[in-house]
Amino acid sequence: QGAAHSLGTAPVCRSPAGLTKQTTRTHVKPPAPPRGMTIPTLSYHIFPCLSSPDQRTAPQRHQPASKIVNLVPTDRSRGMNADYGAPTELAGPLQQRRALYQPRLPPCLQGATVRVEYGDATTTIDPTGAHAVAQAFPRTYGQRLVTFLAPDDTAGAGKAVDERPPIRVGVVFSGRQSPGGHNVVWGLHDALKAYNPHSILYGFIGGTEGLFANKTLEITDDVLASYKNQGGFDLLGRSIDQIRSSKQVSAAMTTCQNLNLDGLVIVGGVTSNSDAAQLAETLVQKNCKTKVVGVPVSLNGDLKNQFVETTVGFDTVCKVNSQLISNVCLDAISAGKYYYFVRLMGRKASHVALECALQSHPNMLIMGEEVALSKLTLMEVINKICDGVQARAELGKHHGVLLIPEGLIESIPEMYALIQEISILHNNNVPVTEIPTQVSPWAAALFQFLPPFIRRELLLHQESDNSAQLSQIDTEQLLAHLVEAEMIKRTKEGRYKGKKFSSVCHFFGYQARGSLPSNFDCDYAYVLGHISLHMIAAGLTGYMATVANLKDPVHKWRCAAAPLTAMMSVRRHLRGPGAIPIGKPAIHPSPIDLKGKAYELLREKASSFLLDDFYRTPGGIQFEGPGSDAKPITLTIEDQDYMGDIEMLKLYLDKVGA
């Protein structure tokens, strides 16, 4: 309440030149989208430092025209970007050199075929929702785990190439563009042609809209040449990122039938793979031969469970953001008078923020999972931050860097409830202008308390998964403004005697999505592309391509496939134990494990690094030499190997049986 008088305008921040100006975002919106001194207990996390190129010809500037097939022209398909799939000139020497990098494969994938080993039947990651998942997916629930191994030498090489029938496969990008996505297509293409040179790979132009409209591009070596190891999703593009309604599912099935597809590969995150599971179930029920498989590609890193250790794109995005954050840290300590509030893309979970904190060591990190667990109100979060600012001022430090995940605003109880009310009204097609008058009285009071720019952003139309547009809500500006108001209040009360609080706000999100992928993401994506082909060849549907043991070198990676239904759970009506399951089964974002090793390290160093400026500078992504094979710190710390544990258990059981 003490800050209410200053909430009428957007936060005012000081530029490095000392001029007052309205804070602006550091990203550019995409064009016309379809649609006494106490150390606070909240984590102010900074952490200690954890401690020959291919000479083939580079892609030519001019390449043969791509073969684009539009079997069912519609108004929708005509509106798609005509540049998708067009040969692209690799203008920069780094781009050209990266196109020559040959991703590495584990031994089991280095031949044209693999040996398929079937494990035990699966249930779900949440036993309380198993019955609901089984009812919703009667044809694909309970499928067995699958492991891909190198062919048995005693059995020979299997069928000759000409004895293996050609396979027709389609691939579609669904979800936010993530570095490494193109290598999934490349790996799929190479595996397909090795299996049988007459096999055909179709890419759907414009994402899921292209799938519905049957607008395809035949993927060839010439088409791929200028997209290998490159960022973005511009080979094929993306659109609404959903295959959910009965009309959409029907259109996708019709396309699969018209193209006589043996398999459809859906590249995306939690929502896209949930849709893939539903599509696979429907196609089985309709006796459609097309096998549907998913590939975990998401910059958010929230598609994480016993089977999936991390997602393609997460490593690159965190490395790019960490470089930007470390630059900001050095700028802060150089000027000595600004607090930088940095919001990071990553949706509801704080995986990107945690990884970036481990890599760059900012002064504070406010994690959504902590706020939700402690049920901290908005003003309690503000007071925690102000306590940190005041503690640093006692040491003569009037600068700092604070990281905020974009999902933080949904983790604050009263803000979460407000967003849910707005979401319900959106789903009921209530006009945006009428929503503020139709929320509950307490929600209306909170809504009016918020500054106008936050009100506008909360009312934006929802994402394709019916969630709030978190990337468009300037949480960092809201916090900066409230912190400034609270520090002014403390100054007037005589509780704070330091310099005037000044802030600079940033949102790091879009800057990293189109980055050149790291070696890790290049290798990981290429391997997943190969696995996708072998899943289809083995007749698997409703599965996700997975790789275990990612913390080790590529030659030690274990390739597998896990049923999508095994990753599902059912949302609960209330948070906490005893909550009532509601809604449809789906793959949900995995939050930070507050009992995990990465978080344990974070907590261990929180207090000391709040007060010390031990900033870490990781620098840019390294593609050659020392550091080129660095992997996410959270991946290496957690040391997760669920599939490896199963193998060890089998060995022990065999010994007991003997």
UniProtKB/TrEMBL annotation:
Keyword Transport: no
Compartments in which it is found: Cytoplasm
Principal cellular location given in the protein's record: cytoplasm
Stretches the record annotates as Disordered: 1-37
Keyword terms, alphabetized: Allosteric enzyme, Cytoplasm, Glycolysis, Kinase, Magnesium, Metal-binding, Transferase
PANTHER family for this protein: PYROPHOSPHATE--FRUCTOSE 6-PHOSPHATE 1-PHOSPHOTRANSFERASE, PYROPHOSPHATE--FRUCTOSE 6-PHOSPHATE 1-PHOSPHOTRANSFERASE SUBUNIT ALPHA
Biological role stated in the UniProt entry: Regulatory subunit of pyrophosphate--fructose 6-phosphate 1-phosphotransferase.
Name the record gives this protein: Pyrophosphate--fructose 6-phosphate 1-phosphotransferase subunit alpha
Source organism per UniProt: Aegilops tauschii subsp. strangulata
Lineage: Eukaryota, Viridiplantae, Streptophyta, Embryophyta, Tracheophyta
